[in-house]
Sequence to fold (364 residues):
Amino acid sequence: MGPLFLVKLLIPISLFKLRWAMVRMRFAVILPGGAYKTENLILSKQLGCTDVIGHGPSLIQGSEVWEHGDLLQLKRHVESHGLRLEVLEDGPRIEKIIYNLPGREEQLESFCKSLENLGKAGIKVIKPQHMPPVPNAIWRTETDKLTRGGATSTAFDYELVKNVAPTSKFGTYQEEDIWKNMAYFLENVVPTAEDAGVVITFHPDDPPISPIQGFPRILRSVEAFDRLLSLVRSDYVGICFCQGCFAEMGVDVPAAIRHFGAKGKIFFAHFRNVKGTVHSPGGFQEIFHDDPSGQVDMYEAMKAYYEVGFQGPMRPDHAPKMQYDEILGGHSGYYLLGKVFAIGYMVGLAQAIEKQGLGSSKAS
Fold:
Protein backbone atom coordinates (compact mmCIF):
# COMPACT_ATOMS: atom_id res chain seq x y z
CA MET A 1 0.00 0.00 0.00
CA GLY A 2 1.82 3.11 -1.25
CA PRO A 3 1.58 6.77 -0.20
CA LEU A 4 -0.48 7.68 -3.27
CA PHE A 5 -3.14 5.15 -2.28
CA LEU A 6 -3.35 6.63 1.23
CA VAL A 7 -3.71 10.15 -0.17
CA LYS A 8 -6.56 9.02 -2.44
CA LEU A 9 -8.22 7.33 0.53
CA LEU A 10 -7.86 10.16 3.02
CA ILE A 11 -8.87 13.06 0.78
CA PRO A 12 -12.50 11.96 0.31
CA ILE A 13 -12.77 11.08 4.01
CA SER A 14 -11.50 14.55 4.93
CA LEU A 15 -13.92 16.21 2.55
CA PHE A 16 -16.76 14.10 3.96
CA LYS A 17 -15.99 15.20 7.53
CA LEU A 18 -15.52 18.81 6.41
CA ARG A 19 -18.98 18.81 4.83
CA TRP A 20 -20.51 17.50 8.07
CA ALA A 21 -18.53 20.03 10.11
CA MET A 22 -20.26 22.82 8.22
CA VAL A 23 -23.67 21.74 9.56
CA ARG A 24 -25.28 23.07 12.72
CA MET A 25 -28.76 21.77 13.23
CA ARG A 26 -31.45 24.43 13.37
CA PHE A 27 -34.46 23.76 15.58
CA ALA A 28 -37.97 25.16 15.82
CA VAL A 29 -41.08 24.17 17.78
CA ILE A 30 -44.81 24.80 17.42
CA LEU A 31 -46.50 25.43 20.77
CA PRO A 32 -50.16 25.90 21.79
CA GLY A 33 -51.37 29.35 20.89
CA GLY A 34 -49.46 29.64 17.64
CA ALA A 35 -45.99 30.30 16.29
CA TYR A 36 -46.17 34.08 16.70
CA LYS A 37 -47.48 34.33 20.25
CA THR A 38 -44.95 36.42 22.18
CA GLU A 39 -44.76 33.97 25.09
CA ASN A 40 -44.11 31.12 22.66
CA LEU A 41 -41.30 33.02 20.96
CA ILE A 42 -39.69 33.63 24.35
CA LEU A 43 -40.04 29.95 25.33
CA SER A 44 -38.71 28.82 21.94
CA LYS A 45 -35.58 30.87 22.48
CA GLN A 46 -35.23 29.49 26.03
CA LEU A 47 -35.47 25.94 24.64
CA GLY A 48 -32.52 26.59 22.34
CA CYS A 49 -34.46 27.05 19.11
CA THR A 50 -32.91 29.08 16.31
CA ASP A 51 -35.91 29.35 14.02
CA VAL A 52 -39.64 29.66 13.78
CA ILE A 53 -41.47 27.54 11.23
CA GLY A 54 -44.42 29.83 10.81
CA HIS A 55 -47.62 30.18 8.85
CA GLY A 56 -48.93 32.73 6.40
CA PRO A 57 -50.73 35.95 7.30
CA SER A 58 -54.46 36.35 7.70
CA LEU A 59 -56.24 37.35 4.50
CA ILE A 60 -58.78 40.05 3.91
CA GLN A 61 -62.14 38.73 2.71
CA GLY A 62 -62.16 37.92 -0.99
CA SER A 63 -58.36 37.85 -1.39
CA GLU A 64 -55.95 34.92 -1.64
CA VAL A 65 -52.78 37.02 -1.99
CA TRP A 66 -50.24 37.10 0.85
CA GLU A 67 -49.28 40.77 0.94
CA HIS A 68 -45.66 41.89 1.29
CA GLY A 69 -46.32 44.18 4.26
CA ASP A 70 -48.12 41.46 6.21
CA LEU A 71 -45.29 38.99 5.60
CA LEU A 72 -42.66 41.55 6.56
CA GLN A 73 -44.47 42.31 9.81
CA LEU A 74 -44.46 38.62 10.81
CA LYS A 75 -40.78 38.30 9.97
CA ARG A 76 -39.78 41.37 11.98
CA HIS A 77 -41.84 40.21 14.97
CA VAL A 78 -39.99 36.88 15.01
CA GLU A 79 -36.59 38.47 14.48
CA SER A 80 -37.18 40.86 17.38
CA HIS A 81 -36.95 37.78 19.64
CA GLY A 82 -33.64 36.64 18.17
CA LEU A 83 -35.16 33.94 15.94
CA ARG A 84 -35.30 33.43 12.17
CA LEU A 85 -38.42 33.16 10.01
CA GLU A 86 -37.46 31.71 6.64
CA VAL A 87 -39.89 28.79 6.36
CA LEU A 88 -43.68 28.77 6.41
CA GLU A 89 -45.56 25.62 7.33
CA ASP A 90 -48.28 26.40 4.80
CA GLY A 91 -48.64 28.23 1.52
CA PRO A 92 -51.21 30.22 -0.42
CA ARG A 93 -54.25 28.11 -1.27
CA ILE A 94 -54.00 25.72 -4.23
CA GLU A 95 -57.03 23.40 -3.85
CA LYS A 96 -58.80 24.87 -6.90
CA ILE A 97 -55.70 24.08 -8.98
CA ILE A 98 -54.99 20.60 -7.65
CA TYR A 99 -58.64 19.52 -7.77
CA ASN A 100 -59.55 21.48 -10.95
CA LEU A 101 -62.29 23.53 -9.33
CA PRO A 102 -63.88 26.77 -10.60
CA GLY A 103 -61.57 29.75 -10.16
CA ARG A 104 -58.30 27.87 -10.56
CA GLU A 105 -56.78 30.42 -12.98
CA GLU A 106 -57.46 33.24 -10.54
CA GLN A 107 -55.97 31.14 -7.73
CA LEU A 108 -52.88 30.48 -9.85
CA GLU A 109 -52.44 34.23 -10.39
CA SER A 110 -52.85 34.92 -6.67
CA PHE A 111 -50.30 32.22 -5.82
CA CYS A 112 -47.70 33.76 -8.12
CA LYS A 113 -48.29 37.23 -6.66
CA SER A 114 -47.80 35.75 -3.21
CA LEU A 115 -44.53 34.15 -4.32
CA GLU A 116 -43.24 37.55 -5.41
CA ASN A 117 -44.19 39.07 -2.06
CA LEU A 118 -42.63 36.17 -0.12
CA GLY A 119 -39.36 36.68 -1.97
CA LYS A 120 -39.36 40.41 -1.24
CA ALA A 121 -39.92 39.68 2.46
CA GLY A 122 -36.99 37.25 2.60
CA ILE A 123 -39.08 34.14 3.29
CA LYS A 124 -37.45 31.31 1.40
CA VAL A 125 -39.57 28.15 1.79
CA ILE A 126 -43.29 27.41 1.80
CA LYS A 127 -45.43 24.27 1.96
CA PRO A 128 -48.77 24.64 0.16
CA GLN A 129 -51.50 22.19 1.11
CA HIS A 130 -52.10 19.68 -1.69
CA MET A 131 -54.22 17.32 0.40
CA PRO A 132 -58.02 17.23 -0.11
CA PRO A 133 -59.97 20.43 0.73
CA VAL A 134 -62.02 18.78 3.47
CA PRO A 135 -61.96 19.16 7.28
CA ASN A 136 -60.37 15.73 7.75
CA ALA A 137 -57.61 16.16 5.18
CA ILE A 138 -55.36 14.58 7.83
CA TRP A 139 -57.24 11.48 9.00
CA ARG A 140 -57.01 9.86 12.40
CA THR A 141 -59.39 7.16 13.61
CA GLU A 142 -58.50 7.70 17.28
CA THR A 143 -57.24 10.76 19.15
CA ASP A 144 -56.73 9.43 22.67
CA LYS A 145 -55.13 6.02 22.41
CA LEU A 146 -53.03 5.09 25.44
CA THR A 147 -49.27 5.06 25.19
CA ARG A 148 -46.39 5.21 27.69
CA GLY A 149 -47.36 5.96 31.29
CA GLY A 150 -50.98 6.65 30.44
CA ALA A 151 -50.24 9.45 27.99
CA THR A 152 -52.54 9.53 24.97
CA SER A 153 -51.92 10.06 21.28
CA THR A 154 -53.53 9.74 17.87
CA ALA A 155 -53.80 6.56 15.80
CA PHE A 156 -55.05 5.47 12.39
CA ASP A 157 -56.47 2.19 11.12
CA TYR A 158 -57.27 2.10 7.40
CA GLU A 159 -59.71 -0.76 7.87
CA LEU A 160 -62.04 1.68 9.63
CA VAL A 161 -62.17 4.21 6.77
CA LYS A 162 -61.42 2.40 3.52
CA ASN A 163 -65.11 2.03 2.68
CA VAL A 164 -66.18 5.54 3.70
CA ALA A 165 -68.27 7.09 0.92
CA PRO A 166 -66.81 9.85 -1.25
CA THR A 167 -67.42 13.43 -0.14
CA SER A 168 -70.69 14.45 -1.78
CA LYS A 169 -69.49 17.92 -2.76
CA PHE A 170 -66.56 16.60 -4.79
CA GLY A 171 -67.33 13.02 -5.81
CA THR A 172 -64.41 10.85 -6.89
CA TYR A 173 -61.14 11.63 -8.62
CA GLN A 174 -58.78 9.41 -10.56
CA GLU A 175 -55.18 9.34 -9.37
CA GLU A 176 -53.79 10.41 -12.74
CA ASP A 177 -56.10 13.45 -12.69
CA ILE A 178 -54.36 14.68 -9.54
CA TRP A 179 -50.93 14.06 -11.04
CA LYS A 180 -51.95 15.98 -14.17
CA ASN A 181 -53.18 18.90 -12.08
CA MET A 182 -50.02 18.86 -9.97
CA ALA A 183 -47.90 19.08 -13.12
CA TYR A 184 -50.05 21.96 -14.37
CA PHE A 185 -49.56 23.78 -11.07
CA LEU A 186 -45.78 23.38 -11.06
CA GLU A 187 -45.34 24.26 -14.73
CA ASN A 188 -47.15 27.54 -14.11
CA VAL A 189 -45.62 28.61 -10.80
CA VAL A 190 -42.01 27.38 -10.83
CA PRO A 191 -40.71 30.18 -13.12
CA THR A 192 -42.09 32.75 -10.65
CA ALA A 193 -40.70 30.78 -7.69
CA GLU A 194 -37.25 30.77 -9.29
CA ASP A 195 -37.38 34.51 -9.95
CA ALA A 196 -38.58 35.18 -6.40
CA GLY A 197 -36.09 32.78 -4.77
CA VAL A 198 -38.83 30.85 -2.95
CA VAL A 199 -38.81 27.06 -2.70
CA ILE A 200 -42.15 25.22 -2.98
CA THR A 201 -42.12 22.06 -0.84
CA PHE A 202 -44.60 19.25 -0.39
CA HIS A 203 -45.51 17.17 2.67
CA PRO A 204 -46.49 13.50 2.31
CA ASP A 205 -50.16 12.64 2.41
CA ASP A 206 -51.10 11.88 5.99
CA PRO A 207 -52.01 9.09 6.18
CA PRO A 208 -50.08 7.87 3.13
CA ILE A 209 -52.62 5.38 1.82
CA SER A 210 -55.24 5.69 -0.91
CA PRO A 211 -58.07 6.31 -1.48
CA ILE A 212 -59.84 7.93 1.45
CA GLN A 213 -63.27 9.53 1.12
CA GLY A 214 -63.03 9.41 -2.67
CA PHE A 215 -59.71 11.24 -2.84
CA PRO A 216 -56.51 9.67 -4.18
CA ARG A 217 -53.55 10.22 -1.85
CA ILE A 218 -50.75 10.51 -4.37
CA LEU A 219 -47.74 11.40 -2.17
CA ARG A 220 -47.59 8.11 -0.29
CA SER A 221 -44.19 6.57 -1.15
CA VAL A 222 -40.57 7.38 -1.92
CA GLU A 223 -41.28 6.57 -5.57
CA ALA A 224 -44.18 9.04 -5.60
CA PHE A 225 -41.89 11.83 -4.41
CA ASP A 226 -39.36 10.90 -7.07
CA ARG A 227 -42.14 11.30 -9.62
CA LEU A 228 -43.19 14.63 -8.10
CA LEU A 229 -39.66 15.99 -8.30
CA SER A 230 -39.40 14.91 -11.95
CA LEU A 231 -42.55 16.78 -13.05
CA VAL A 232 -40.67 20.08 -13.26
CA ARG A 233 -36.97 19.79 -12.51
CA SER A 234 -35.97 22.82 -10.48
CA ASP A 235 -33.92 23.72 -7.43
CA TYR A 236 -37.07 25.47 -6.20
CA VAL A 237 -39.20 22.33 -5.82
CA GLY A 238 -38.56 20.14 -2.78
CA ILE A 239 -39.80 18.25 0.23
CA CYS A 240 -40.92 18.94 3.76
CA PHE A 241 -39.52 15.67 5.07
CA CYS A 242 -42.02 14.39 7.61
CA GLN A 243 -40.39 11.42 9.32
CA GLY A 244 -43.70 10.34 10.77
CA CYS A 245 -45.38 10.02 7.39
CA PHE A 246 -42.44 8.18 5.85
CA ALA A 247 -42.49 5.87 8.87
CA GLU A 248 -46.23 5.36 8.33
CA MET A 249 -45.36 4.19 4.80
CA GLY A 250 -43.12 1.51 6.29
CA VAL A 251 -39.94 2.71 4.57
CA ASP A 252 -36.41 2.90 6.00
CA VAL A 253 -36.50 6.52 7.18
CA PRO A 254 -32.72 7.15 7.46
CA ALA A 255 -32.30 5.69 3.96
CA ALA A 256 -35.05 7.99 2.65
CA ILE A 257 -33.32 10.99 4.26
CA ARG A 258 -30.11 10.04 2.48
CA HIS A 259 -31.98 9.46 -0.79
CA PHE A 260 -33.62 12.88 -0.92
CA GLY A 261 -30.96 14.71 1.06
CA ALA A 262 -28.24 13.69 -1.38
CA LYS A 263 -30.30 15.40 -4.09
CA GLY A 264 -30.60 18.57 -1.99
CA LYS A 265 -34.38 18.24 -1.86
CA ILE A 266 -35.08 18.39 1.90
CA PHE A 267 -35.71 22.00 2.95
CA PHE A 268 -37.23 21.46 6.39
CA ALA A 269 -38.13 18.47 8.48
CA HIS A 270 -40.70 17.14 10.94
CA PHE A 271 -38.99 14.92 13.50
CA ARG A 272 -41.60 12.31 14.50
CA ASN A 273 -41.96 8.62 15.27
CA VAL A 274 -44.83 6.12 15.02
CA LYS A 275 -45.46 2.52 15.99
CA GLY A 276 -46.84 0.42 13.14
CA THR A 277 -47.62 1.52 9.56
CA VAL A 278 -50.65 2.17 7.39
CA HIS A 279 -50.19 -1.38 6.10
CA SER A 280 -49.92 -3.06 9.53
CA PRO A 281 -52.86 -4.87 11.14
CA GLY A 282 -54.42 -2.19 13.36
CA GLY A 283 -52.53 0.60 11.59
CA PHE A 284 -50.19 3.03 13.35
CA GLN A 285 -50.03 5.12 16.52
CA GLU A 286 -48.02 8.27 17.17
CA ILE A 287 -45.67 7.80 20.13
CA PHE A 288 -43.03 9.61 22.18
CA HIS A 289 -40.01 10.61 20.16
CA ASP A 290 -37.66 8.43 22.22
CA ASP A 291 -39.92 5.33 22.33
CA PRO A 292 -37.80 2.36 21.18
CA SER A 293 -40.90 0.55 19.89
CA GLY A 294 -41.17 3.03 17.02
CA GLN A 295 -40.57 2.44 13.35
CA VAL A 296 -37.66 4.90 13.26
CA ASP A 297 -34.18 4.67 14.73
CA MET A 298 -34.17 8.32 15.74
CA TYR A 299 -30.42 8.49 16.32
CA GLU A 300 -29.74 7.12 12.83
CA ALA A 301 -32.29 9.53 11.39
CA MET A 302 -30.59 12.52 13.01
CA LYS A 303 -27.22 11.24 11.86
CA ALA A 304 -28.52 10.94 8.29
CA TYR A 305 -29.41 14.65 8.27
CA TYR A 306 -25.82 15.43 9.18
CA GLU A 307 -24.52 13.07 6.49
CA VAL A 308 -26.36 14.84 3.70
CA GLY A 309 -25.50 18.33 4.94
CA PHE A 310 -29.11 19.21 5.75
CA GLN A 311 -29.38 22.92 6.54
CA GLY A 312 -32.64 22.82 8.48
CA PRO A 313 -34.71 23.89 10.20
CA MET A 314 -36.49 20.95 11.80
CA ARG A 315 -39.16 20.76 14.45
CA PRO A 316 -40.67 18.05 16.64
CA ASP A 317 -43.93 16.95 15.11
CA HIS A 318 -46.95 15.32 16.74
CA ALA A 319 -46.37 14.24 20.34
CA PRO A 320 -48.52 12.53 23.00
CA LYS A 321 -50.67 14.42 25.49
CA MET A 322 -49.10 14.27 28.95
CA GLN A 323 -50.03 14.93 32.56
CA TYR A 324 -50.89 18.63 33.13
CA ASP A 325 -51.42 19.25 29.39
CA GLU A 326 -55.16 19.58 30.02
CA ILE A 327 -54.34 22.63 32.14
CA LEU A 328 -51.69 24.05 29.82
CA GLY A 329 -53.85 23.72 26.72
CA GLY A 330 -53.38 22.58 23.15
CA HIS A 331 -54.93 20.02 20.84
CA SER A 332 -54.18 16.50 19.56
CA GLY A 333 -50.53 16.21 18.61
CA TYR A 334 -49.84 19.78 19.71
CA TYR A 335 -49.87 19.91 23.48
CA LEU A 336 -47.06 21.67 25.30
CA LEU A 337 -45.16 19.14 27.39
CA GLY A 338 -44.61 16.57 24.66
CA LYS A 339 -43.07 19.27 22.47
CA VAL A 340 -40.79 20.52 25.23
CA PHE A 341 -39.64 16.96 25.91
CA ALA A 342 -39.14 16.30 22.19
CA ILE A 343 -37.03 19.39 21.50
CA GLY A 344 -34.72 18.48 24.40
CA TYR A 345 -34.39 14.95 23.02
CA MET A 346 -33.59 16.27 19.54
CA VAL A 347 -30.96 18.70 20.83
CA GLY A 348 -29.40 15.83 22.82
CA LEU A 349 -29.23 13.60 19.73
CA ALA A 350 -27.66 16.40 17.70
CA GLN A 351 -25.04 17.17 20.35
CA ALA A 352 -24.17 13.49 20.70
CA ILE A 353 -23.56 13.26 16.96
CA GLU A 354 -21.53 16.45 16.92
CA LYS A 355 -19.41 15.32 19.91
CA GLN A 356 -18.46 12.22 17.98
CA GLY A 357 -16.90 14.41 15.31
CA LEU A 358 -19.74 14.03 12.84
CA GLY A 359 -20.49 17.73 13.08
CA SER A 360 -19.24 20.76 14.94
CA SER A 361 -20.99 22.68 17.68
CA LYS A 362 -18.78 25.62 16.70
CA ALA A 363 -20.15 25.72 13.16
CA SER A 364 -22.65 28.44 12.27
Residues 23-358 form a domain with the TIM Barrel fold (CATH 3.20.20.150). The chain has one domain: 23-358. Residues 59 and 116 are 16 Å apart (CA to CA). Residues 1-22, 359-364 have pLDDT under 50 and may be disordered.
